Amino acid sequence: MNYSILYLNSSLKSVDSNLTETLSLSELNSQEVFKRLPVIVFISILILMGTIGNLHVLYIYYRKFNRSTYRNFVLTLAAIDIVSCTISMPFEIYDELYPYLFQANVACKVFRFINFTLAIATGLMLVVISSERYRRICRPFGSQLTEKQSIYAMIGIIICASGASLPALYVYGIKTTQIPGYDSVGTECTWGDHIEVYVGYIFYGETLMTVIGCMIALVVIYSIVGKYLWDHAHKMSKNMRTKYQMKEPIKLDVIEEETADQIRRARDSFRSIKQSNENGTAATKDEMKHNKLNKKARKLELPIINIKQNSDAPTSSGNTSPNHIPKTSPNWKGQKKLQTRDMKGLKKAFKNVTGRPAGANPLLSKPEKSVPDREKRITIVLFTITVLFIVSFLPYIVILILYSADESYEKSMTTVEHAVYLIGLRLYMINNVANPFLYSSFDSKFKKHLMEIYSFLSALI
To answer: Where is the composition biased (Polar residues) (predicted)?
Structure first.
């Protein structure tokens, strides 16, 4: 009987001790949640904005846009963003509400797997999109990604991202952790107690290398596209200047001095030839070349003398060409050499001014193909999404690297520093929220349909 009473008293003390410990953990958990309120508010705002914005994107691009690769890309990105805003972000809030009392082991594994899948899928998808932009802009006459192929590419990306994230199902789980400043031990959702620490670092390394590799590929591809557009704009500007020069008179004081000297020598030479010739025969081949060149010079309104034929001198057709040098004239060879030299100089001057050989026909020249404005606008939209992806992921990458180098630095933070640290870990979520705002800023068609929706709703009210 006495043993029974002692056992009962011992059991009551054990229950009371466990209750005290549980209450202590609950109080510590509540205190920590209060410190993390800025993080919870930040994620809640992202959920609200991202859900509403991406629902607009899904509706407008699905109902108002024609089927295309661009439409498929936008819809897939919006679907990923919706999943992030309705599943991943609410889980992050739940995780913040139970920093020391997290007990859902399966939920921890599944939601971490979803988070990594979405992040890797976004990076891979942007690489595929940038490759498609490269083909459209830099290789417009080459093979292009079709609308059907883009669907297969998106499905393949989701499968690859899921495969790369599978280790998260093993790595993550419930981990017991010492609460800073207290003797109590809590539980959190992170690398589980069942694995060695190096396994978690290996998985982190794999994820970091994948995301960083995507960033490097994006920078390289868009640098090539940007350089091509820059060079193309320069060529088009040069062509426009050439067209303007063909329509406007070209004056000696606005062209290079060397070109001006060539034109002056040719002008003086032909004037002296005209004055020295009094008789002649039929026009020679050189004269025909000169007349052709002079005709082109006249189109450009070059400041040279257009030598007219002397109707009083007989030729094979009853006229004389003043540009022809008869063999009977004094110093025939010298004058002939001078005329040939000045004709070459005039051809060179013509090329310097127009950018084409003297015999080139501007109407037969292959025009520089202009990049369509629609392709430029689409490229700008997708490029801004890429920039946002890189900028929003950089803090996450830096924090992971610092954490891998020294795990203890988090414990020495103040309350404000720790809140900033936790927000920095989740800044990548902005990538899932900001895309609708980018579409409304850079895609005029999306903005137009968006305004139509709200104009219709305001009319009903």
So the answer is: 272-282, 309-332
- The pLDDT tens digits for 409-433 are 777 788 888 888 899 888 999 999 9
Mean pLDDT over each residue of the chain, to the nearest integer: 76
Q: Compute the distance between CA of residue 113 and CA of residue 109 in angstroms, rounded to an integer.
A: 6
Both tokens of 274, joined, read 């005209």
* Residue 219 CB contacts under 8 Å (≥ 6 apart), including other chains: 390
Q: What does the alpha-carbon distance between residue 291 and residue 284 come to, in Å, rounded to a whole number?
A: 11
Q: Please, are residues 182 and 172 in contact by the beta-carbon 8 Å criterion?
A: no
DSSP class of 428? G
Sign of CA dihedral 78, 83, 86, 90: negative
Judging by DSSP bridges, how do beta strands 185-191 and 172-178 pair with one another?
A: antiparallel
Task: Give the H/E segment covering residue 419.
Answer: helix 415-425
Q: How far is CA 403 from the centre of its chain?
A: 31
Residue 51 CA to its chain's centroid (Å):
25
- DSSP letters along 252-306, please? GGGS-HHHHHHHHHHHHHHHHHHHH-----S--HHHHHHHHHHHHHHHHT-SS--
DSSP state of 320: B
Of 447, 369, 427, the C-alpha closest to 119 is 427
Integer Rg of the chain from CA: 39
Q: Please give the Cα distance from 346 to 305 (Å, whole number).
A: 12
For 358-388, b/e burial (b = at least 16 CB within 10 A) is beeeeeeeeeeeebeeeeeebbebbbbbbeb
Side chain identity, residue 238 = K
CB 171 within 8 A of CB 200: yes
Neighbouring residues of 148: CB distance < 8 A, sequence distance ≥ 6 = none
The string of pLDDT tens digits covering residues 365-407 is 444 555 666 777 788 888 888 999 999 888 888 888 887 777 7
- Asked if 287 and 297 touch (Cβ cutoff 8 Å), the reply is no
Look at residues 187, 199, 299 and name the one whose alpha carbon lies nearest to residue 249.
Answer: 299
Average pLDDT for residues 33-42, to the nearest whole number? 93
Q: What is the rounded distance in angstroms from the CA atom of residue 98 to the CA atom of residue 33?
A: 7
CA nearest 274: which of 333, 341, 329? Answer: 329
Read off the tokens for 434.
């900001």
Structure tokens at 10: 């011992």
3-class DSSP assignment, residue 383? helix
